[in-house]
């Protein structure tokens, strides 16, 4: 398999194997090819393959059995949240068995508050791009997502932004930025002003996912303030123990 030199080789191998598992090219419970076979297929060292497999094992996607080989976790279909799964809302909804759609609610410029400026390492009152989007599963609203992105990163006119895309695609296509990692704070909040758009009572509780997205240089890219109706969708986390 030909791998590009524009991205780290291990990242590319990781992405391919992850896609095979998520698309059931490697079925739940199936034994993966040996390290030597994967090394030959990708044209990389066995050390690279071991590094990738170790990462997938930590996520709970695969199970490594001493002296027997590496297997896809039989419960992989139950895992709807691992690494990017928690913040890629479309993926999270799809893996939970729903048909996903995204509705852009707003794409506009706002001014940074003191706290927003601190988190994004910009000046107070600097321009931000506000993206407000609604994620639906089988036509029912599930997640209201609000992202704030420094306008200085915008590489196209704001009118060009398609808010119906996933956040990774939006950042890459319109801001020329790659998301490397995300931090997430989870709390319970009253629906209040978000109630009507999610078809809930104002005194209903939602999961609030406060996210901060970073580049591979540890630079802040965007803040996410998101509200999830856990009456419809219940994220499940997995962590491997070693």
Written account of the structure:
- The chain is of the alpha+beta class.
- The protein folds into two domains: 70 residues, Winged helix-like DNA-binding domain superfamily/Winged helix DNA-binding domain (Arc Repressor Mutant, subunit A), CATH 1.10.10; 146 residues, Chorismate lyase-like (Chorismate lyase, 3-Layer(aba) Sandwich).
- It has six helices and eight strands, in the order αααββαβαββαβββ.
- The strands form two sheets. Strands 3-4-5-8-7-6 form a six-stranded antiparallel beta sheet.
- α1 crosses α3 and α2 packs across α3.
- The longest helix has 14 residues.
- It is globular, with a radius of gyration of 20 Å.
What distinguishing features does this structure have?
globular; alpha+beta; two-stranded antiparallel ribbon; Arc Repressor Mutant, subunit A; 242 residues
């Amino acid at each position: 398999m030909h791998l590009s030199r524009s991205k780290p080789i291990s990242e590319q191998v990781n992405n391919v194997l992850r896609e095979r598992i998520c698309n059931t090219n490697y079925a739940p419970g199936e034994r993966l090819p040996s390290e030597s076979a994967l090394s030959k297929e990708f044209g990389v060292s066995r050390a690279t393959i071991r590094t990738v497999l170790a990462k997938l094992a930590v996520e709970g996607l695969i199970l490594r059995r001493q002296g027997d080989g590496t297997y896809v976790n039989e419960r992989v279909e139950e895992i709807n949240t691992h690494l990017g799964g928690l913040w890629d809302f479309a993926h999270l909804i799809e893996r939970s068995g729903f048909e996903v759609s995204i509705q852009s609610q707003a794409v506009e410029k706002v001014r940074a508050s003191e706290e927003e400026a601190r988190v994004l390492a910009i000046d107070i009152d600097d321009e931000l791009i506000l993206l407000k989007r609604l994620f639906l599963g089988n036509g029912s609203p599930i997640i209201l997502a609000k992202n704030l992105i420094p306008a200085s990163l915008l590489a196209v006119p704001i009118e060009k932004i398609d808010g119906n895309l996933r956040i990774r695609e939006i950042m890459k296509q319109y801001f020329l930025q790659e998301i490397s990692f995300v931090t997430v704070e989870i709390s319970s909040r009253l629906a209040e002003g978000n109630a009507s758009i999610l078809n809930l009572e104002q005194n209903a509780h939602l999961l609030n996912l406060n996210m901060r997205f970073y580049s591979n240089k540890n630079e802040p890219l965007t803040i996410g303030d998101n509200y999830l109706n856990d009456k419809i969708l219940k994220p499940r986390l997995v962590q491997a123990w070693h």
